[in-house]
Amino acid sequence: MKKLLTSSIAAALLLSFVATSSAQVRFGVKAGLNLANISFSNLPAEAGITTSMIPTFMVGGQVEFDFAENLGLGVGLQLQGKGAKNKSDFLGQTVETTVTPMYLQVPVMLQYRNNGFFAGVGPYVGFGLFGKNKTTGADSQDLKFGSTIDDDFSALDFGAGVEVGYEFGSLRATASYNLGLANALPKDAVSGSDLKARHNVIGIGLAYLFGGE
Q: Three-class SS of residue 57?
C-alpha cells in the first residue's frame, strides 16, 4: 500500500507539471471488448479448478498531455469488466461458475505517437464496484468486495498495462493487455496460505479524441 501511495503521489506531481506547461491537451471517450481471465497460483491440485476467458466490456474517458514531439502522458477513468469462467469437479460432477466483477479503473500511461502509430505503457489501479457470481443450476449472486472472509474479491486491484494501435484522424483503434499484480482474493480469506489470484485482460478498443492536434 505504501508503494502504491508513493506511485500515486509521483503521478499526481507529474500531471501537475505537464498540465501547467505548454503541452497540447486532448480529451476522449473510449469503449471496447474485454477478454478477461483469472490466473491462480499455489492452488491445491485437489481443488481441480480450471479457468477460461469470458467476454466483457470497458467504457470510459481519458485526457492526454503531449509534453514532447512524440511523447505524452495519458490518464483515464474507466469502467472495466474482469472475471473468468471456472470449472471444478464436485462429487463427480462438473460445476461451472462465471464471475463478472466490475472495477473503476484509473490507468496512467506514457504514450508514443508517430505518423498514426500509437503505443502506451504504464500502471493502473482499480476499485471494485459490483458484479455477479453465476453457478450452473443456481441463482446468480451479487459479488462483495473487501478484505474479510465473507467477501469475494479484494476491493483494490492494480497492475501494469500495454497498448498499441493506430490513429485515423480523431479515431484510435487499439489492442491492449492488462496484467494484474495484486492478489484479487480478500486478505482474510487467504490468511496463512500462499494462494493468489490475478486478473488478466486482453482488450480491443476504439477511442474518439478531440482537442490538440
A: strand
For residue 202, count other CB atoms closer than 10 A to its CB. 14
Q: Which pTM does this prediction carry?
A: 0.87
Contact of 95 with 136, CB cutoff 8 Å:
yes
- The one-letter code for the residue type at 59 is V
Do strands 54-66 and 84-90 pair parallel, antiparallel, or not at all (unpaired)?
Answer: unpaired
The Cα–Cα gap between 73 and 68 comes to 10
- Give the total residue count for the chain: 213
CA 38 to CA 188: how far, in whole Å? 19
Query: Check: CATH 3.90.1010.20 for 2-210?
Result: no
Tell me the pLDDT tens digit for each residue of 151-209: 999 999 999 999 999 999 999 999 999 999 999 999 998 888 889 999 999 999 999 99
